[in-house]
Amino acid sequence: MDTARRGTPVRRINSVVASLPETPIRAYSSTNNLPALQPLNEIRPEGLSRRHSFVVGTQNQNSNKRSESINLHFHRLLYMNLYDCERVLFMLRKIISIIKLRPRLFICTMATTAVGSGHTPQWELVQQLLWKHRQSLVGKGFGNLTTTAIPANVASATGRMQYLEVLVSITLYYIRSYFPKHLSEESQESMQANERVRMTAMELLSLVVSELGQVIESTGGSGFINYLKDMLNRCRMQKAVLCCLLASMEVESSNNNIYCSSEDNLAFQSQLLSLLHHLITLESRFANTTQPKTCTISFKMIHAILIGNKEEICSLTSPRYLHYIHGSGISAQPMFLASLLLALQSQSFLTLHCQWIQLITGCLPNLGSALGTVASATVNQICDTLEALFDCGDDEVMIPLHAVTGLPPDYCIILLEGLTTICHYCLLDSVYSHSNSLLSMLPWGMIIPTREGMAVVISRVMITFALISNQLDDDAIPADGGDISRKLLRQYVSQLTTPIAMNHCFVLISAIGYAWHMLSKPLIIDESNVLEQILPEASKEQLVLIDVIISIKALSIETVIENVKSIVKSVLSNKKQLASSGTSLEVDILSFFYHLSQRLPIASIQGCWQSVCNTIKECVQLSISNHGQFILLAILYTHVQKVPVVDDRKVLQERQDILQKLIQACSIIVGSALQQSTWLRRNLVVMAPSTSSTSGSRLSRSSESESSSKFSNPNEVTVQQNVQALTILAELLAPLIDIIFSSLEKDRVSSILSSLMNNVTPYLKNHCAYNASSYTASVKLLATLTNYQYTRRAWQKDVYDLFLDPNFFRMGSSSISGWRTIIDNLMANDNTAFRDMLNRINLSSTASLNLFTSRDQESEGCAQNLKRLSYVLFSGEIDQYQGFLPDIQERLADGLRLPLTPVVHEQIFFCFRILLMRMSPHHLTSLWPTIITELVQVLQIIEKALTIRDPASVKYHVHSICVFLLTLRLPNGIMLNDSAWLPLYLSACKLLDLALALPSDKLPQFQTYRWAFVTEEDYLTLARENSGKVSSFPLFTPCLEVMAGLLDEVSFYITAFIASSRFE
């Protein structure tokens, strides 16, 4: 230091430069007599994530891609022999001491003093050394130029150079210098000393750049700034630093031809980041005096970063894309962004991640137009790292960080603090103007200024918080470096979201909506989960998002609702621009608000009705999507269920008006699959599909635009939507009407439901297979409405006509229970309905006389009426119709008096079965003789049909047996084995099976006749005891045992014939 005080700084630096060793340096090029560096894909650093690695190509690709990879290392300078490193270290450290002693004086003097101003003996030596170095860089050697005269123009230019430019150039030479490996084998100490030279030169250059920034800040002269900009361009300082930074992403590899250990590389990169920070700060001081330039990073790169497209980012970070763009700052260079991504992805640089994050957070005010891109890339990569740390990411290639040793103890905390700092600066502290344009907050929209673009990045942060929150316990520590519990994580989330919620709640709720969509899972279209498609149950990760909003104490529920309304309005007002987005943000926002309403306490719900009311009204007026209409109905249902009683007449009227509008909107959706059958009058029918519907297709619950891509036929989308509308109405409409409309206003309900029933009835009339899902949903809706009698006028006539439809019983099993409820409500609450039904079932021969109908049609009509009677009895409660039992018995007797018709008698036996289940035993005492008589008669017919009269003639002729069985007739000419008789036989057997299966206390009268059908246990015991005795009368064989023996006999003959035919 004493030596530094003597003389002026110019003289000291003059002597220092002159004393630098004459060491040959060559540019790292394929023209040198050294092995060329292999492409980066062949020397992939260990631990480097394969997500965004620089993949140039395979080994057998053409030389163009190989040369592109080599271009990344043209900045390197190679020593051809050893030099005195200690001498250089001494002089560099002396200059550092001078700068630290009087930094302002040193920098100003160096910047204003030319090399040729003093004409000292050292001047000629400095001039000659600079000339030698420049000649050596272009491959002309170094030592053989001692006697060569310097050209006049070069000498003049060198004389005008300022000492500051000389110092910057020399330090950059040392920073870029390396030893080849063949020299490292000769002297390991010299190699290590060269690394110290490079680090010391980096320290010196950092001091110079830092002091230059302070000089500009204090003086601000445009002339000095222009000089510095020209000087840095001549020295190519920014390009050299970026090339060194990108090259430092490599670690020691056997394929690398230069000496650079991994430890030295980490230390070099650490020092390089400090220099980079000062350079970015210096460039921002330049930009303060001129207009800021736009970011030179391409549109595709920014878009890929915002949406997290890893494949596209990987392709854009190839060497073909990574080149230095002159005239742009460091932060706007693709090389800087690529280095940032590689460093944060690589597990080899875990110890430097914290320093990289500090670099970004420290340079946030100086990034200029590249702020949004750099911040987005950093946040996205931090989120990927956090997910990998807790092993909850979706990247199977990347090694989980909890399996990596050597993590810093506060690694996770630093990552979370970095997220918070970046997001807060971009949204709260930056100078960009705020706009609530939704396009600027969606990843599929325009690329936008920083503040709006960070909304997408915040959604990425919310997704990460939701994923890792479910991996944590309240107090557990998952791994080294992951020193965080769920409680601590919530504190950091609160620190991040609370300021944003207070200043930019619109941005936060938009981010939550997009995160809600990304955390949802696709569903499989199935009739059993239609309601789940409309209102899916929130996942654990989505519940975390709701907890985040609830935990923000400074955020009121009214503010959340108002921002939800603003977001929906923004989406719908820009629907044309978002037509190709593939995601409906308004649906995700409303779905989030619906689940939030379910988790809110009643006290919070009571005070925000007006906000909810305004939101629903405006959404309906803005023609929201069909799925959005369904969610609005669910939101209304949630609020009404939590606050059912309202004293304010105005609020009650608002609820009724909103419900009526939503019913009309859903009714339009229901009627979207209907068309007029004739042009003369409005008779609606279900549209037949043009192609068969695709079942089992995967559908995302987010939007209709996404669902349309899953269906090949647009009509299928319409059917799916009207089924969803019918299902949501079936679940919510009846309870909503019952709560919202008071007892004095129930009369208005019928008129409101009339238009809805006009669109529902056509689905109930259509029994085709393609209408099955709509039919089932319509039955569910009608069943819920019929539970409330004040709605009777809206559906009574339609239900009665449907019940009398000849195709009424053509339905799926899932609709039977719904129709039971409907028919029970139709008959039970009207004393004349069942009587009218009985009057229609008149089975006497005179009543059914009609000249224009055949006997078969009359029989079919009688059977249908009996089946309807049985279904009415089955739909009611026990003994509900016991007062009408005499009339029912009379109708059955009229049917039995008719000629033996199998279709009618089949339904009579079916009605007997229903009566056994729906009437108490003591009410059926008078009916048992008729039941037993008819049952025995049919069983005797079956027995006669199975009896083979001449076994010898048909023993070996199965054809004859079949002909005999199929042509058996009664004396009156009725064929017993016609296919129409088989259902009768089955119905009789089912009746007998039911009577035998029911306990004796349920059918006490039947026990008197039981012996005629089956053998009792006591009787079998008696028969075994008397088996050796001679009896005066034969033992009785029950009817079912006789039939079983006949069936065995027929089976034996058929089996014997088949065996004999095979033998022949």
TrEMBL record:
Pfam family, one: DOP1_C
Domain of life: Eukaryota
Positions with biased composition (Low complexity): 690-709
Ranges of residues in domain DOP1-like C-terminal: 608-1017
Ranges where the DOP1-like TPR domain occurs: 71-429
Region Disordered: start-end pairs: 690-714
A GO CC term attached to the entry: cytosol
Gene Ontology biological-process entries: Golgi to endosome transport
InterPro entries: DOP1, DOP1_C, TPR_DOP1
Name of this chain's protein: Dopey N-terminal domain-containing protein
